[in-house]
User: Which sequence fits this backbone?
């Protein structure tokens, strides 16, 4: 596996940090969750449960080990510093200043291990007036200007169903940053500090929106962007049986195929029509789509290249042949919880693939193992 012999000390909780270290663990890194002894990661206690831990915790913390240390005690700090000596990476998601108050900040740790890569994932980064401000996904989306644009024209902002800032703005940039720092370390022999702000990450995702504003100072309105409600060719339509069909016919060849399939060739020249014309076009297409069931439309479009898809529920998604073929839902057998399904890895490597080897550890399951290892090293 590509990250074999890479040791990661994971002090993070909940979603952004654990998702980052999950990706590292999937590809062979030895990820050690360093948890507070009594409660551990808060996500352990969420509902619903799979055995003693939440299903969310099992998903995000598979392939990892758990060590309990009280980092507020001198003994716990000393043990952690010993672990840092043999570590390649430390990942934490506390507010700026917390690790410094514990005496375990990057400046301290790099004295123990100059080759250490230290990644801090926070809402707003280590600098700036918001650095110590609390927040969650919805707050970072709000400050980035993205939540303002989400939803239908004339409606209020719509909260997305998954955590864009946590995963896209935090976990993924953190993973890339860690891997870049490890790659650079091969040349310099030195580690470095990886500063990840979820707000920064969300802003960097606005590539189809923000450059237009920066160039022409044209403010976008909710529901009017080309790929967020402004185009009839990129929209969702309700079928006769109250199901939904998504259409992404952005290119002329796909749009042409779509228009011919709904028997309205007169719509073909209107692909890039002005906004008001797009609203009329969407209304007419909706009228047409509502006359047939989802199954009827899928039959019509099955042999065409028009970028038309059914809007699936989870029940349907996990049985979809493409999802099955890509191994995105994995079935595991566990001694305690029995058979369980897990989300697969999205990164497919030909020679050194990642995979799910174990479910999440029990709280402190590997503490004795690492205490013994450190005792041997001391001798």
Assistant:
């Amino acid at each position: 596996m590509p990250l074999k012999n890479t040791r990661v000390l994971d002090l993070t909780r909940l979603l952004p940090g654990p998702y980052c270290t999950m990706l590292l663990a999937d590809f062979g890194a030895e990820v050690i969750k360093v948890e507070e002894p009594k409660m551990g990661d808060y996500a352990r206690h969420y509902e619903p449960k799979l055995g003693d831990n939440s299903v969310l915790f099992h998903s995000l913390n598979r392939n990892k080990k758990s060590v309990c240390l009280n980092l507020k005690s001198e003994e716990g700090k000393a043990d952690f510093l010993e672990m840092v000596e043999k570590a390649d990476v430390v990942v934490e998601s506390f507010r700026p200043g917390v690790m410094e108050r514990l005496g375990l900040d990057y400046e301290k740790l790099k004295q123990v291990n100059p080759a250490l890569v230290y990644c801090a994932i926070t809402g707003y980064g280590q600098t700036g007036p918001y650095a110590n401000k609390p927040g969650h996904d919805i707050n970072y989306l709000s400050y980035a200007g993205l939540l303002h644009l989400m939803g239908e024209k004339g409606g209020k902002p719509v909260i997305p169903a998954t955590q864009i800032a946590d995963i896209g703005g935090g976990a993924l940039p953190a993973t890339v940053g860690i891997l870049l720092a490890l790659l650079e370390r091969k040349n310099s022999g030195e580690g470095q500090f990886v500063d990840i702000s979820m707000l920064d990450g969300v802003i960097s995702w606005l590539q189809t929106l923000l450059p237009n504003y920066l160039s022409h100072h044209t403010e976008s309105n909710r529901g009017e962007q080309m790929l967020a409600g402004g185009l009839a060719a990129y929209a969702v339509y309700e079928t006769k049986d109250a199901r939904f069909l998504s259409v992404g016919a952005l290119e002329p060849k796909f749009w042409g195929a779509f228009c011919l399939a709904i028997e309205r060739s007169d719509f073909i020249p209107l692909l890039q029509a002005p906004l008001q014309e797009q609203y009329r076009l969407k209304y007419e297409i909706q009228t047409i789509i509502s006359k047939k069931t989802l199954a009827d439309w899928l039959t019509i479009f099955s042999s065409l290249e028009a970028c038309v898809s059914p809007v699936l529920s989870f029940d349907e998604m996990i049985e979809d042949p493409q999802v099955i073929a890509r191994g995105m839902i994995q079935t595991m057998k566990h001694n305690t919880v029995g058979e369980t399904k897990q989300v697969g890895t999205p990164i497919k490597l030909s020679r050194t693939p990642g995979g799910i080897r174990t479910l999440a550890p029990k709280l402190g399951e590997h503490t004795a193992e690492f205490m013994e290892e450190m005792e041997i090293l001391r001798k």
